[in-house]
Structure formats: structure tokens, C-alpha cells
Amino acid sequence: MAILAPSLLSADFSDLAGQIRTVQAGGAGYIHMDVMDGTFVPNITFGPPVIRSLAEKTELPLDVHLMIQRPELLLAEFVTPRTEFIVVHQEACQHLHRTIQQIKALGVKAGVALNPATSLSTLDYILKDLDLVLVMSVNPGFGGQKFIPATWDKLKRLNEMRKERHPALLIQLDGGVNLENAVRLKEAGVDILVAGAAVFGAPDVTQRVKDFVALLAE
């Protein structure tokens, strides 16, 4: 069974607490927090104060995706009682191993995200230290983009790496997820599907989450 993690990037920013309640009611497994700094990606979203506030409004674990430069300087700011994962970008970390160890020292699980053009080989010497790998199937920065087809091969290769070297590793995917490709993504080995526009763009957000959950439970 794969898990749905709705991304707040596509939610109504004027009522984030309310939006979280709608996806929680539908059976979402995580709340995906896209933190953007306007430098690593061409967009700005929210930071630690918003995440700390929202952590008090939900019972769901938080999946914090840092699309920021020099994440190692701010890691502790994103740790709340609800934070389960902190995910940093391989491309943003000069000393990736050190950053992963910093995350683990804070008592949360550590993940690494890879942009579409970044090779899986960049994780060769750190894979066993990771709890999660996030495969970006769009170029990060904006919601509502189309799934990049080359991602299918990347997922196949990552799943093979996992089976051979780190069976406990979780695979997460973000970008272009919808009801049409959700089952295929699960079959490709994805454990956590991040969906933004496909969830929060629906007329009935709670029902849309239920639809995803039903598909992923099959």
C-alpha cells in the first residue's frame, strides 16, 4: 500500500489550517510542506513559523521538503513534534553526508531529493544512510506541472538499487501525480505520492483524497 502526502503548495494559503483538516478527513498519510527560498527555486512559500503553527493544527506527520540553499543552517528550525521527515536537495548541499547526519541528530528521519536531471549515482555513497529518496518528476518551484516521462526509468533504477542495497528505504515522488498515474506509480515502487494540484484543485478536496487512498490501497 502506498501513502498519499498532499502538498500545501497548491492549497489555499489564506486557510492552510482548514485545508489540512480537509485532507486529514479524507485519509491522507502525511502533510507535505514545500519550503522554497526564491534562490534554489524561483518561488517563495513559507518558513519555520508557519510550519510550527500548522503542526499544532493536525494529527498527521509532517514531511518537510526543503528547496532552499544552505539547508544545514536552518534544519533545527523545521523540527516540530509532528515532523517525521526533513528532505534536502542533493543539489543544494555542499556536504551532503554531514547534512544528513545533522538531520538524524535532531531526531527525525532524513531524506534526499533529486531534481529531474540529477543522476541516481550521486547517492552511491550515502544511500544506506537515508530513510527516504524523493524523486522529482517535475522541475521544482511551481505546482501543476506535467510529469516528466524519463522519471519512469529513474524509478525503475532506484527500485533496483533499493532491492540490492537498502530494502528499508522509502521512495517518494513529487510532481504531476494524479488519479490516472497513481496506481502505476505505486507499482513502480513509490511508497509516498506527493500530490498538490490534483488534490487541492478538486471541487471536493476530501473526496479527492478518499479517491486517491482507495486507489493506493488496492
Order of helices and strands: EHEHEEHEEHEHEHH
CATH topology assignment: TIM Barrel
Catalogue the unreliable spans: none
The CATH architecture assignment turns out to be: Alpha-Beta Barrel
Strand order of the largest sheet: 1-8-7-6-5-4-3-2
Q: For the record, what is the CATH homologous superfamily label?
A: Aldolase class I
Structural class: alpha/beta
Per DSSP, the total helix count is 7
Number of strands: 8
The CATH top-level class label: Alpha Beta
Shape: globular
Biggest sheet layout: 8 strands, parallel
- Rg, alpha carbons: 16 Å
Strand content: 15-25%
Mean pLDDT: 96
What is the CA–CA distance across the termini?
7 Å
Can you describe what's shown?
With 218 residues, the chain is of the alpha/beta class. It has a single domain (3-217), classed as Alpha-Beta Barrel (TIM Barrel). Helix content is 31%, strand content 20%. It is built from 7 helices and 8 strands. It has helices spanning 16-26, 48-55, 96-105, 151-165, 182-187, 197-200, 205-217; strands at 3-6, 31-36, 62-67, 83-89, 109-114, 132-136, 170-174, 192-195.
What are the key terms here?
single chain; 218 residues; alpha/beta; TIM Barrel; 8-stranded parallel sheet; 7 helices
Summarize the structure.
This protein is an alpha/beta fold.
Any chance you could write out the topology, listing elements then pairs?
Blueprint: E1 3-6, H1 16-26, E2 31-36, H2 48-55, E3 62-67, E4 83-89, H3 96-105, E5 109-114, E6 132-136, H4 151-165, E7 170-174, H5 182-187, E8 192-195, H6 197-200, H7 205-217
Parallel strand pairs: 1-8, 2-3, 3-4, 4-5, 5-6, 6-7, 7-8
